[in-house]
Amino acid sequence: MLHTYKEALEWVHSRLRLGIKPGLSRMEWMLEKLGHPEKRIKSIHVGGTNGKGSTVTYLRSILVEAGYEVGSFTSPYIEQFNERISINGVPISDEEIVQLVNAIKPLADELEKTDYGAPTEFEVITAMAIYYFGEVRPLDFAIFEVGLGGRFDSTNVIQPLLSIITNIGMDHVQILGNSIEDIAYEKAGIIKEHTPIFTSVRDEAAFHVIQAEAAKKHALLFQLGINFTILNYEPIQAGEQFTFSTTKYTFEGLQVSLLGKHQTENAAGAIAALLYLTDQGVMNISESALRAGLRKAYWPGRMELLHNDPIILLDGAHNREGVRAFVDAIQSRYADRNIKLVFSALGDKDLTEMFTIMNELDGQLYVTEFDFPRAASANELKRRSENPTVIANNDWFSLLKELVSTLEPNDLLAITGSLYFISSIKPDLQKIIVSEFSK
User: Fold this and answer.
1) Distance in angstroms (rounded) separating the CA atoms of residues 99 and 257
2) For labeling, which of 77, 218, 407, 419 is most exposed (least CB within 10 Å)?
């Protein structure tokens, strides 16, 4: 038995050595041993390439405003490990993490001796979340974010009330396939028999794959732009504003505080899903709860404004589609600013296309590196940028400290790239900002 939070985390993280092992057999084995807690959870499943975390946030925030107790399982974490399993947006306690690890560890040890093999880190954490929501702390609803892909992701053992697939793009091609159709096929694997599916997928080829899977599973399909639409979009000082419309509902002047036009699409998918469940009598979402929930929704590391004058923001744009949304948001909101952009990423990403998009910005691009097994070096990033004006610095702390200390009122400092990078630097970056601007 493990006694401390430190011991529990060390055991969980030690399983990173096992890498990624797609498949559901190990999860199904553990859940059977636990008495199938997943069957006692009213859940919503969220998959896709970009926008999963934001969609989870909108769902959770609206449900909390409506008076429900809501669990959420997300990845990766930005500020602390515990946030991966939360209730009403509040991470569970260190003591609960220890309790959950002690429940799952004996099963992991036993499983390792079978033909299935040892469960991975993500499988262990998923099992912890399902056990927590289904057995330790029963609640009204739980929202599960897919980790990787969908079809063979460890979260795909749940039987949700409905599923949501956000936008789909080219990511994790070495695992999911190197065409948009292959990736869409894996994402569409979360569609269950007779279980409604909502999607904001824009790519036509990806949508046809989802449509075919939905038909095969006899699942009602609701698509952004067809079954629910966004009208009257406009950026506002506090975020984004839009009208949500269906044949039954029209809500004008909805506001979200997360920045970027793409956030209205993530919000629309969440709204459509919750209104469907309201119409089915599963829950009751009032217009006031919907409006307040959208406005209050907060997700760290996604176009997060850390300082307003001068502007410093943080965004986990970790693939081509994410960088495209990030650059579009910068250009629509801050084109008149002197832009300084800091970027770091994993070496196995499609960096060429990401740099092509970032090079559209009229500003200075800096690249750096961080301590992570698959992280690209600053020099490698500079080489792959094919931009002679890029400045490489392998010490992200000294780079950020220098940039923050020399910011002028009209400057914009934007830090982006891998979510692992964002997670690594955020605590120290916040300290740098406090130190500099409290003088």
Assistant:
1) 35
2) 218
Position 177 scores a pLDDT of 55
- Residue type present at position 66: A
Tell me which of 296, 329, 358 is where a domain ends: 296
Backbone angles phi, psi at 236, to 5 degrees: -125, 170
Are the beta carbons of 345 and 368 closer than 8 angstroms?
A: no
| Token pair recorded at residue 95 | 């003591």
Q: Show which of 276, 296, 316 is a domain's final residue.
A: 296
Residue-wise pLDDT tens digits, 232-283: 999 988 889 999 999 999 999 999 998 888 899 999 999 999 999 999 999 9
Q: Say if residue 328 is in the same domain as residue 283.
A: no
| Winning range, highest mean pLDDT, from 59-63, 237-241, 336-340 | 59-63
CATH number at residue 318: 3.90.190.20
- The tally of CA atoms less than 13 A away on the side-chain side of residue 99 is 12
Q: How many CA atoms within 13 Å lie on the side-chain side of 183?
A: 23
CA distance linking residue 407 with residue 41, whole number of Å:
49
Range of the domain at 337: 304-437
Phi, psi angle pair for 202, to nearest 5°: -100, -30
Residue with tokens 């949700």: 160
